[in-house]
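Quick illustration, no need to memorize.
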Amino acid sequence: MKGIAIVMKKRNLPILGLISSALLFWMATAFYPGGTSASPDFAGYSWSEHFISTLFRDSALNGAANTAKPYAVAAMLVFCASVAAIFWSLSRCVSGWLRKIIAIGGVGSMVYAGLAVVTPMHDLLVTVALAFFVPGFLATLRLVQNARWRSAKLAGLAYLVLVVVTSAMYYGNLLPEHLAAAQKAVFVLGSLWLACVYQLSEALSAVTPNNSSKPTPLRGAA
């Protein structure tokens, strides 16, 4: 019983990490001094106008010292570590090329996303993180498809459309007034989808076509 409890605690760590990250992000927005492009004296964090990266700057848009930065950096690092752990755990469900793509794509994307908030090369690292994330996510979607988990597959496809649309908005400067909201939707919905797949990943060992990417039971550890 003690061994089972330890395994369960370890397996819950990525989910607890995501919850902790959300709380830290909320604290960061609460401590943000304020300022928007339209109203420099605006007090607080504007969810409709501010980007997540706004929380990582040394100074707020109104020129005040950004007291939210420590909380935001901690939130992002915890988020990246948690999502990386989920991708790594899901990669253990399969073998062959699918395992490698999920692990390298998923974990790699979180490494570069984490570096983006602690280095001055934010835009470049965000692009690199996206280049890793898309293959990792597609491989995870293939894993779900092999398990014949229809609802998760449809939700994953809808999320992929959102990622494509948001990327087009970001790189094509389309509808910039809605990009901040779209960016947050990508973070929240992607986290929820991965968390659900992770929590129910025992179902990924269901009968699938007999090939090298067939899911295998998890061994308990994240």
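Residues 56 and 73 are 6 Å apart (CA to CA).
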